[in-house]
Design brief:
Mean pLDDT is about 90; it is low at about 30. The longest helix is centred in the middle third of the chain and has 26 residues, at about 190-215. The chain has about 525 residues and is of the alpha/beta class. Strand 4 (about 95-105), helix 3 (about 110) and strand 5 (about 125-130) form a beta-alpha-beta unit. Strands 1, 2, 3, 4, 5, 6 and 7 form a seven-stranded mixed beta sheet that branches. It has three domains: about 15-25 and about 170-195 and about 455-510, no CATH class; about 35-160, no CATH class; about 215-450, no CATH class. Helix 5 (about 190-215) packs across helix 18, helix 9 packs across helix 11 (about 335-345) and helix 13 (about 370-385) crosses helix 15. Helix content is about 45%, strand content about 10%. It has helices spanning about 15-20, 40-50, 110, 175-180, 190-215, 220-230, 235-245, 250-255, 260-275, 290-310, 335-345, 350-360, 370-385, 410-435, 435-450, 455-465, 470-475, 480-495, 505-510, and strands spanning about 65-70, 75, 85-90, 95-105, 125-130, 135-140, 145-150.
């Protein structure tokens, strides 16, 4: 077992990368997949299809037939096709209902024996990432031709940035690491330290991503884009990011009078964001009747947008870019945009980035005092939870019934996710750019003290993968840092079809000699 104590360091450690290099773990770029792309796992392709992270209006099957997914189908976690009861509109055939099977490569259809299994005769579409065989169709057991759709041509997302945690989880089984650990009941501390290092690597990777963005933008804009993506959840990340770039912070500040009240500032920002986003009642139907309060609010916002259309009207997004299906009403795009507008209005003069930076710099967050670090974290979350609007606090949309009680525009869990996935990595990128070791040390104290987020599909899968049903996951994965470590190991090893357990850095580290 590798002695991890010699790899520790203050601040965000690169120990995980050092350990992988020492163990000879091959980097992604050294092991390309198809068409020069890094290998991906089939589960990721399923997420892309289910979430429709594709240019839907451009879809065509491999034989040139235009296609439109009316419904991607129901995610099937049992045996049989990956999606059931799908509805696909084919040019010349009309609406076809049936099942959809998903693979990384078109050749996987025959390799998995689906051409010989009656259970797959119900498949109406074979969805793949890459058509490695260049065939237009595959054939089922009944001899019928099934059209193929290659997603690689229609992606509207970056594979490395697609979150899979909110999608249905695959069946989790204990890996070889779990078998090894079952024989080492006293090694929970070792696993925890390994996950700590992996968790540091995940935040460092996000900081590097922000550093790349900062080559062409400001810290304030990078924060704005990151928060907007987080508010978009899985189905609306791309349109929220697009909106943030079409209506950047600098231009929002320009259209907002300095002497206006916070409510007036927020309403002006809302008018611009709703208008460019093609979300106003004049741009799309409103669900539910509008009462007097709604009509007054909509009238004011529409008037503000009309005054801006000459300059910004041509930037309006495609209204089909937004997805309203599969999300809670409280998380609807207009409500989330209203929340962002309130944050920008509230911190218009000094900027939201500066407010967060000052909150960290002024907080008492000593490395050896987790209680002070947790207090500082609550202060960061409070900045986002303070987003409030007299109209949207009691509304799900422009129309419909007014809520009896006000509802937070950004809830506690989403605020925590923003702090963990956006604020800490961006401030880390800032600290490293400025050479501010004290700030980095303070950020690491906050990261170590950050409590766990609610479990999701990835953490559930990985807890079972590493710990089985022993219950040791509860004892070991006690912080958000270790949860992030689970994500990193999942991304590097468990998510990929081309890497077996025998090539996993955790297993190799478990089997490594204590001393060189």
């Amino acid at each position: 077992m590798l002695d991890l104590r010699s790899y520790g360091s203050d601040g965000f450690s690169d120990a995980y990368s050092v350990i992988k290099e020492r163990l000879g773990v091959v980097r992604d770029q050294e092991q390309p997949g198809y068409e020069g792309r890094a290998p991906i796992r089939e589960s990721l392709v399923r997420c892309i299809w289910f979430g429709q992270h594709i240019k839907a209006r451009m879809l065509a099957t491999e034989d040139g037939t235009r296609a439109e997914a009316i419904s991607p189908g129901w995610w099937n976690v049992e045996d049989g096709p990956d999606f059931q009861r799908a509805e696909v509109l084919f040019e010349g055939r009309g609406l076809v209902k049936g099942d959809v099977e998903v693979h990384v490569f078109a050749s996987d259809w025959a390799r998995h024996g689906h051409d010989k299994l009656e259970a797959y005769n119900s498949v109406i579409l074979h969805v793949v990432m890459w058509n490695d065989g260049r065939g237009r169709f595959v054939t089922n057991q009944a001899g019928q031709k099934i059209p193929q759709l290659a997603l690689s041509r229609y992606l509207d997302c970056e594979l490395d940035e697609l979150d899979v945690d909110e999608y249905p989880a695959a069946d989790a089984q204990g890996g070889l690491c779990q078998q090894r650990l079952a024989k080492l009941p006293a090694q929970a501390a070792w696993v925890g330290q390994f996950l700590d290092f992996a968790g540091d690597e995940r935040i460092l990777a996000k900081a590097r991503m922000f550093s790349r963005r900062l080559e062409s933008t400001t810290f304030e804009q990078a924060l704005y884009e990151g928060v907007m993506e987080s508010l978009g959840y899985k189905n609306n990340k791309a349109p929220f990011l697009q909106l943030a770039r079409l209506a950047p912070v600098a231009e929002l500040r320009r259209v907002v009078p300095v002497d206006a009240s916070a409510t007036e500032k927020a309403q002006r920002i809302q008018a611009l964001l709703f208008g460019i986003g093609n979300l106003l009642p004049s741009q799309r139907p409103v669900h539910g009747a509008m009462d007097e309060e709604s009509r007054a609010y909509v009238g004011a916002v529409e008037a503000l947008w009309q005054a801006l259309t000459a300059e910004y009207g041509k930037r309006a997004m495609d209204k089909d870019a937004w997805s309203f299906a599969g999300s809670r009403p409280a998380n609807s795009p207009p409500r989330r945009i209203a929340a962002m507008s309130c944050l920008l209005a509230r911190h218009g003069e000094e900027g939201l980035f500066k407010a967060l930076l000052m909150a960290v710099e002024q907080a008492e967050s000593q490395p050896d005092d987790p209680s002070k670090a947790r207090h500082a974290l609550r202060g960061l979350k409070a900045i986002f939870m303070a987003a409030a609007d007299p109209f949207w606090d009691r509304r799900y949309g422009f129309g419909g019934q007014r809520l009896a009680r006000p509802l937070k525009l950004i809830g506690d869990e989403r605020c925590a996710a923003i702090v963990l996935n956006v604020v800490l990595p961006l401030l880390l990128a800032y600290a490293r750019q400025k050479g501010d070791a004290a700030l980095e040390k303070r950020l690491h104290a906050l990261y170590r003290a950050h409590p766990k987020l609610p479990v999701n599909n990835v953490t559930t899968f990985m807890n079972c993968r590493i710990f089985g049903s022993s219950g040791r996951a509860v004892e070991t994965v006690t912080t958000a840092r270790r949860q992030q470590g689970l994500y990193q190991v999942f991304k590097d090893f468990c998510e990929r079809d081309d890497i077996t357990c025998g090539k996993c850095a955790m297993l190799l580290a478990l089997d490594a000699p204590t001393r060189e």
